[in-house]
Amino acid sequence: MKNKPLALLAAFTATLIYGINHTVAKEVMPHYVGGFGFIFLRIAGATLLFWIVSLFISAPKIEKKDFPILLIGSVFGMGVNMLSFFKGLEFSTPINSGIIVTTTPIIVVLLSTLYLKEQLKAFKLIGLSLGLLGAILLLVTTEEASLIYNAPNIPLGNLLLIGNALTFGIYLVIITPLTRKYHTITLMKWMFLFGFFLTLPFTYGEFSEIHWIGMPFDAYWRIGFVVLGTTFLVYLLNVYALKILSPTVVSSLVYVQPVIAISFALLTGNDHLNLTKVVSFLLVIVGVYLVSKTRTA
Questions:
Q1: In 147-255, which residue ranges form alpha helices assigned H by DSSP?
Q2: Which has the closest alpha carbon to 59: 185, 243, 175, 235?
Q3: What is the pTM of this model?
Q4: What pLDDT does 56 receive?
């Protein structure tokens, strides 16, 4: 398929942006913008951008029967997913966030086993156990340096980040059939519009508390990066990639994300490595490898 390399590039670029986002967004929270306030900015900005772009394209309209699926996709992809990620990142650290997001393929396999009664083979069971052990190790660990790295409640933050990984996996599965039926911009403009109203009761309070006057330029460009890059571009690139690639291929690029997140956080001095994080990272990566290997065998 001639567009496959371009789709892979789109998916990798989205992963790169999201990996950097762990540190970029963390630097702003919660001193200038609370986690939920950030979501208001993120979804409102992306909704506006997608609707403006839609004015310049000609594409089929969404059929009425597909709106319920769009709504469910918005609940998981723009609602619970974003709420849990930003509040989790506010409480935890960029490296923890980058490691935990890697558990998405493992969580998808676990759900398939529990609800779809898929057979759990030996290698898959080992991979599942190792990955969950790595996530649990981070979940129950409290770091003495938490206040230094602006992480007031690491266990709670890690738990919310696991919720983010879970809902993102569900979102990928739900939205894939529609990505092959409708234009990317058409899908995104409706999903983000739904997401805006779904999250509004939770996000408006912290948004209204933002003190824009006197905010340093460093905070402004980080907010812009999250709205334009992490939201508008990442969702646009991922949906384009899903038109050509399977959810399994797109989600497998999650391997790269912790490497990007860890490297960027260390380079900018926004986090540190310790034995717990290294062991957790290795457990999760090996676990995801075994699960993905057996899924595609």
A1: 154-179, 184-208, 217-224, 234-244, 247-252
A2: 185
A3: 0.70
A4: 87
- 204 CB contacts (<8 Å, ≥6 apart)? 40
Q: Is the pLDDT of residue 16 over 70?
A: yes
**Residue 268 pLDDT greater than 80, yes or no:** no
Cα separation of 249 and 39, whole Å?
Answer: 27
CA gap 229, 198 in Å, rounded = 22
How would residue 207 be classed by pLDDT, with cut points 50, 70 and 90? very high
Buried (b) or exposed (e) across 232-268, using 16+ Cβ within 10 A?
bbbbbbbbbbbbbbebebbbbbbbbbbebbbebbeee
Q: CA 207, CA 197: separation in Å to the nearest integer?
A: 14
CB 180 within 8 A of CB 69: no
Non-local (6+) Cβ contacts of 217 within 8 A are none
Backbone angles phi, psi at 72, to 5 degrees: -65, -40
